[in-house]
Amino acid sequence: MLKGKKVVILGDRDGVPGPAIEECVKSAGAEVVFSVTECFV
Amino acid sequence: MFPVIKGAAYALFHTPNILLDHGTTQTVERAKNPNSDYLKALPEHLRSFADCVDYAPNQAYIGNILPKSLEQVAKPWYENSRKGANRFGTRGEIMPEDEFYGVMKLVDSFDLVLIEEKFAIEVKELLAKHPAFAGANLSKLDKTSDEATIARQVEAHVAEPLRLGNRLVGCVRQAHDSDESLSAHIIFENISAMASAVVSVRNLFLKAGLDPRAVDYIIECSEEACGDMNQRGGGNFAKAIGEVVGCVNATGSDTRGFCAAPAHAMVTAAALVKAGVYKNVVVVAGGATAKLGMNGKDHAKKNLPILEDIMGGFAIWVSENDGINPIIRTDVVGRHTIGSGSSPQSVMQAIVTDPLDRNNIKLTEVDLFAVEMQNPEVTVPAGAGDVPLANYKMIAALGVKRGDIERADLNSFVEKHGMPGFAPTQGHVPSGVPVIGLAREAMMKGEIKRAMIIGKGSLFLARMTNLFDGVSFVMEANPGTTKQATGGIDEGEVRKLIAEAMRALAESLSDAK
Hints:
Chain A has 41 residues and is an alpha+beta fold. Chain A has one domain. Chain A contains one helix and two strands.
């Protein structure tokens, strides 16, 4: 589903942070163009 | 011997006018779109002081009700407050904005806070009757300014206003005309952090019976930075706070680490006491003006009151083992290391299960977990979810994965070992520490044996690293003796060992003969 796609990642400190999502989507063949983790509290 | 927690105090500050002028959501909006619908609607959504006091999560923060009892309060909590609640609690207080302005003047050492004459008389009367300010020197409130002088400073943009509705009652002046680190805005922020910390420490003295002269060391752990343009963040809030509250025998320093700073500070305080460097350490933090009304746009859009109208503060007394108060297990400390990894599983493992495993403590043997205790009524409408619940579920899920608990017991684990969020969204304030006071009291009553206090910090917000941070420590009911398994050996045992060694030496000497 993600193979060859460009991905923008918005991670959550108290949910799933950016680097963890990054690893997942990379392993699915996506290209990460932007990744950030935000703190919403 | 493990150090103990001898007291914990908590304070809230109802500051709707500071929210309007200093909350970053509002200041950014005013700069970008001064005629926005949000700014126009905002005043209608502000709460009265009475409503703020009655609000059940605030009552839980100052110790008048248990956070667990929030489960019995119908939602939304802001519509189901019990009227006539007490602003003073068993562990602290909720302070109105006028009194807070008075404290800002009291903590000011550089004549940067100007207050109007009539207001000064009013607030001095209020603080003279305040239990935590009994015997305090209020003479700074005698130095006043006329309204025209204050208005001129504000209009010239060299001072930030202190307002009560439409009434201008004072201002905070810039401390330098070209140093941005000493601008009126930064000075306002720092004096607010200091004033809220001072009220928290004074409540600790009052509630725990701590003599200010007995304090050896103060660790301040807020998220503000004080300094000038050549050393922005040079500090030292701790010593400044200590000076104001009469800790003449103390020194101190500031610990930073975003929301994880209080947990770092507690571990540091415990280590200093255990090592015998200091006997009585106070860990303290005041609140953040910037975070006031942080989620206000969502609250206004959904027709909620602006619930982030409060600054927070706390003060905790760490001391030598007295055989009575709950101990801090300095051998059960969790830390998210640089190499820990950022997945939710690795974070929770590093902070929660690794320190327990190292000491053969099961997840289920921790009666209470103190996570990020943000009030969900603030965060859920803003789309940030129920933060404490998410954290509890993560801990429980890890327990299921490890086989500590059955999958079917996941929700009951959360219910038994957790509690609803009740703390204000003030960054470091809700981070584990709000539970210390109630856990301490529950241990003193024999209701629980063990609690884990967890602090997590978003280091990536400073743009210096992508890393996350987390620290935890375990509190335990005092076994009732100053001798502990891993904390050392008692005097009698030392005597016995020496006697045995001398006997062996004597025997070896007589054998040699």
